[in-house]
Amino acid sequence: MGKFDEKTVVITGSGQGMGRHMAISFARAGANVVVNDRVAERLEKAVSDIRALGGKTIGVKADITKKQEVDHLINETLKEFKRIDIFVNNAGIARRADLLEMSEADWDDVMLVNLKAVFLCVQAVGKVMVQQKYGKIINMASVRGLAASKPDQVSYSTSKAGVIALTKEAAKALGPYSINVNAIAPSIVIDPEGESGMAVGLTPEQLQKLLVDKAKLSVIGRVGYPEDVANLALFLASDDASYITGQVIACCGGRNDKL
Description:
This protein has helices spanning 17-28, 40-52, 67-81, 104-132, 154-174, 204-215, 226-237, and strands spanning 8-11, 32-37, 57-61, 86-89, 135-140, 179-186, 248-251. It is α/β, with parallel strands linked by helices. It has one domain: 3-Layer(aba) Sandwich (Rossmann fold), CATH 3.40.50. A seven-stranded parallel β-sheet has the order 3-2-1-4-5-6-7, with helices on both faces.
């Protein structure tokens, strides 16, 4: 028996990278997994990988920056699995530019995906969980939302600070219905498969150098991997964390105080 048998989890942006690793981790723990992505090819591959492990899963193509598509994601999940126990707001983007050079279009793109989409999903799934009188919502924030960041990450940092505030507000609103809302704030997370983030397009030699260089920024002496974030999500989604809500937990190897 898995820890999440009969539980259903929805993970946005889970066709690749950290979200895909998280989806696989939940499937291995016994959960029904709903994979979400905007790109059909990524969606199909993630679903295929989970089914190859014997997991129960469906893929739902939806652009979560649009309310009607968020509703579609929720409705398709309920149609297949009847309930939503866990919802992970994982999808996110970054646009690098200094404050004085940041374009309005890039600012809007980041806020749309990283903050508005999280609001739309929390609102929609919150209504379902209120009816169930049970649920776990996990929002992906960042250590860059906790403190001043690099000059070229003004939009990303601001959006993640917004996610943190939204997490705390949602925890207060939904707590009376036995719904826990928490945020994970990762630091450097490198996917050795090179699907997303810093490792995209690197040769094996370049990847190894990146791992060594970034490891120096952690007091533990290594970078973070998608599995590190997935393990924390599994804990927060479990009933072992039933007395934890409105919290932001840094998954950063001790690096969150020196960005």
